[in-house]
Write a structure and sequence with these properties.
Layout lengths: L1 H4 L21 E6 L9 E5 L6 H6 L11 H9 L17 H4 L17 H13 L3 H10 L15 H4 L6 E3 L5 E3 L21 H13 L7 H7 L8 H7 L17 E3 L4 E3 L12 E3 L7
Antiparallel strand pairs: 1-2, 3-4, 5-6, 6-7
Amino acid sequence: MQCIEQGLIGLDDDVAVGPCPELKNKQVLKGFTGGDWKTGEPIFKPAEGTVTLRNLLTHSNGFSYDFMNPTILEWRKYVKRMADYPEKPLPSSLDVTDWYNVPFRFQPDKGWMYGYGIDWAGKVVERLSGLNLGDYMSKNIWQPLNMSSMTFNPATRPDLKDRIAGMTVRDGEGHLHRMGQHYWQEPVKYSGGGGCWGSCNDYVKLLTALLRKDGKILKSETIELMFKGHLRDPSYLTKVHQNPALHALAGNIPQGTRLDHGLGGILNVDKISTTGRAPYTMQWSGLPNL
């Protein structure tokens, strides 16, 4: 959003023409011949239209995270690039453009799926600014808001390393249990979609700056733009929300609530009667339930 304010890019600019030429000539993966990745071949269809910054920020671009879509997981296995093979550890130098350049699962603006769009938006920021995402965010977000714990590289911060909280899971009886390790062991550097670490106190500083529209990191009119609906067709998001397996992305929004996506999270278009949440409130759940 800061890059937009500076006139470096527009929401509807084709990112493949500008900062991310890797997104030219993308293919939509339809499946595998014979329905089996082990014996068949990928079935592709050329992507139509353009991928804009708005698409990247609203998950309407065509990408899907591996864990959200079994077909992408099968494609990873097909090309022998599956990240979870313990016998094949990945180098720590992997770039977003390498690891996250997977096929699309739907045509841009013709679907919705939680995916690598935010990671690619981070790459847009890097290339427009000439800085890696960590240095950019430190200079333009973390320092202005005094967010001293934020980092993409916790291993380089001895003052933070021992403070990293473990993940927990809740069982069927409501009890919390520790997971065996920190969940996020991501090898990709400067992942805009999930590579940043920080404390709850610092995270609240960011939320406070946005809610107060204090001008420290964004103009008030830019923040207001973030809280508007930006999907060309919100019905695709509604369909995903109706899937019980994917409902956790916005699990506290009752079924039947009209939804849209802002530039930062899901919006409930209707007032939520059970909680009194106002229309166009933004939220995101995510794996750690932030």
